[in-house]
Design brief:
The protein is mostly beta strands. Helix content is 12%, strand content 37%. It is built from three helices and 21 strands. The strands form four sheets. Strands 9, 10, 12, 13, 15, 16, 18, 20 and 21 form a nine-stranded mixed β-sheet that branches. Strands 1, 3, 4, 5, 6 and 7 form a six-stranded mixed β-sheet that branches. The protein is elongated. The protein starts with a strand and ends with a strand. The relative contact order is 0.12.
C-alpha cells in the first residue's frame, strides 16, 4: 500500500521505493530526502548498507553515526498488510503511525528507508505553502503548465488560465500565475512571484508581490510575502 501525506508537493521517482520494499519484505519502507536548507527536519537515521531505520531522533547538527545516514521522512511510505497487526492503536485515541507503529519495530529491522533524489516540499504551514508555490514558479516551463493545465503563456514567465479577465492597464511582472476566472481590476500591479487562485478578485490599484492568493479570495491594497484567503492574511 502506497501512503502519501496530503500536505506535500513532490517530484520523486517512486519506482525504486516500491522495488526495494518488495525485495526486502519489510513491513514499511520510507521515502527520505536530503535538504540542505531544512537541517532541522533530518530526523530519520538509517543504515547505509542494509537501509534499516535505526531512529527517528536524528540531529543534523551532530550528524549520523558511522555507517549510517540522515534523511527527512517525506510522508511517503510503502506498507505491507502485516503492519496493521503491529500498530498500537486504541479506539478513540489520536494515533501517529511513527510513534504508535514504527518506533516499536526498529529493533526487529522491520522498517526500511530509501533515499530519493528530486524535489520535495512540506506544505504544513502558510510559509511552507508560499515558498513551494514560489519555487514552482521559478522552475516553471511550458511542460509544467501550458496545455495540460489549461494555461497560456502570453509572455515569458507569465501564466494565465482560460477565463481570467485582466484589465489592459494591469502591470504583470514575471514570474506569476493567474488562475481560471480570476479578475484583475484596472491599475493593479501583479508580481513578481505572485500566484492568483481561481475566481480570485483583485481590486483596482492593488499591489501584489511575493504572494499566494487562494481561490475565491477578494484582495485590495498592497501586499508582499503573504498568503491571502477569504479576506484574511497570514
Amino acid at each position: 500500500i502506497l501512503v502519501v501525506n496530503g500536505d506535500i508537493a513532490f517530484d520523486l521517482d517512486l519506482k525504486s521505493l516500491l522495488r526495494q520494499h518488495r525485495q526486502q519484505s519489510r513491513l514499511a519502507t520510507l521515502a527520505v530526502v536530503r535538504r540542505r536548507d531544512r537541517p532541522a527536519l533530518h530526523k530519520v537515521v538509517f543504515d547505509a548498507s542494509s537501509s534499516s531505520v535505526r531512529s527517528f531522533d536524528g540531529d543534523a547538527s551532530r550528524g549520523a553515526p558511522e555507517g549510517q545516514e540522515l534523511g527527512i521522512f517525506t510522508g511517503i511510505h510503502v506498507i505491507s498488510e502485516g503492519l496493521f497487526a503491529r500498530l498500537e492503536v486504541k479506539v478513540n485515541q489520536a494515533t501517529c503511525i511513527v510513534h504508535h507503529g514504527y518506533r516499536s519495530l526498529l529493533e526487529e529491522e522491520l522498517i526500511g528507508a530509501r533515499r530519493l533524489a528530486g524535489r520535495w516540499d512540506d506544505l504544513g504551514t502558510a510559509e511552507d505553502l508560499l515558498r513551494a508555490n514560489h519555487e514552482a514558479l521559478r522552475r516553471a516551463t511550458v511542460d509544467s503548465f501550458a496545455g495540460r493545465r489549461g494555461l497560456e503563456q502570453p509572455q515569458e514567465g507569465v501564466w494565465i488560465a482560460r477565463g481570467a479577465r485582466i484589465d489592459p492597464s494591469v502591470r504583470l511582472t514575471p514570474p506569476l500565475l493567474i488562475g481560471r476566472d480570476a479578475v484583475i481590476a484596472a491599475g493593479a500591479s501583479i508580481g513578481p512571484l505572485a500566484v492568483i487562485g481561481a475566481r480570485a478578485q483583485v481590486g483596482a490599484g492593488a499591489r501584489l508581490r511575493s504572494v499566494l492568493v487562494l481561490h475565491d479570495t477578494e484582495v485590495s491594497g498592497a501586499h508582499a510575502g503573504e498568503v491571502l484567503f477569504n479576506g484574511a492574511r497570514t
